[in-house]
Amino acid sequence: MRFTLLPLILTAVLPGVLSAVVPTTIPLDICHSPTVVSEKFAGENQDVKVQVVQCDNPIVARDNSELTKRQANVCGATCNTNCFTPSGGGPDPNECHIIADALRYDSQDISNTFDMVPANSTALVVMQYRSCSSFIVNQAGVPLRYCRDDWASVIDWVAPNCQATQNAHGGNCVAADQRWFIQVQHT
After folding, report:
1. Which residues are paired to 48 by β-bridges?
2. Could you say which residues form the signal peptide (predicted)?
3. N or C: which end of the chain has fewer CB within 10 A?
């Protein structure tokens, strides 16, 4: 399944603006020994937890030889959806939608774009609301700029389409060039 993100224009910086997941819910093959560096709450009702998580390991794509050449604005870039099998234990799509709404609120209140530090700096941005968590990973090795509205659209696509009825329990959307991915899962 392929999902195309809509391009958006505004620009901003991320620090402490997005919500995150409890570090123990981040797969250890992505982030070794996750530690919360900063935490705050986002959205209109300030009910979505946002954490910046530090990992002991660098997070890089398996083959990123051509990906580290330049910084890029990846708003509007396409990504490919992968659902995690087997079924059972997926996040509640309605709770995931609360995260998406918080991203949309912040896109209007703060700015639509944010900068993702290079993955080799070992940091992740994780968002959490009740049973749902989502995180975005920069695997490019250089800063990337991304849009909050695009992240929200990915969450709203993956959460309801990677459930037990699809023999799944959450999923991710990986950029066509593998520079970044967004994961949606149960906390």
Report:
1. 42
2. 1-19
3. N
pTM higher than 0.90: no
3 or 66, which is more confident? 66
With vertex at residue 100, the alpha carbon angle to CA 183 and CA 170, rounded to the nearest 5 degrees, is 30
**Distance between CA atoms of 39 and 20, rounded to whole angstroms?**
8
Token readout for 177 is: 């060039």
Give the torsion through C-alpha atoms of 109, 70, 173, 124, to 10 deg.
-60
Element (H, E) at 135: strand 132-138
Residue spans of alpha helices (H) in the chain: 93-109, 148-161
- Chain length of the chain: 187
- CA separation, residue 15 to residues 82, 116, 163, 176 (Å): 28, 9, 31, 26
CB neighbours of residue 108 within 10 Å: 12
pLDDT band at 85 (very low <50, low <70, confident <90, very high): very high
Helix (H, G, I), strand (E, B) or coil at 100: helix
Residue 87, amino acid: S
57: tokens are: 């390991």
Contact 149/108 with Cβ under 8 angstroms? Answer: no
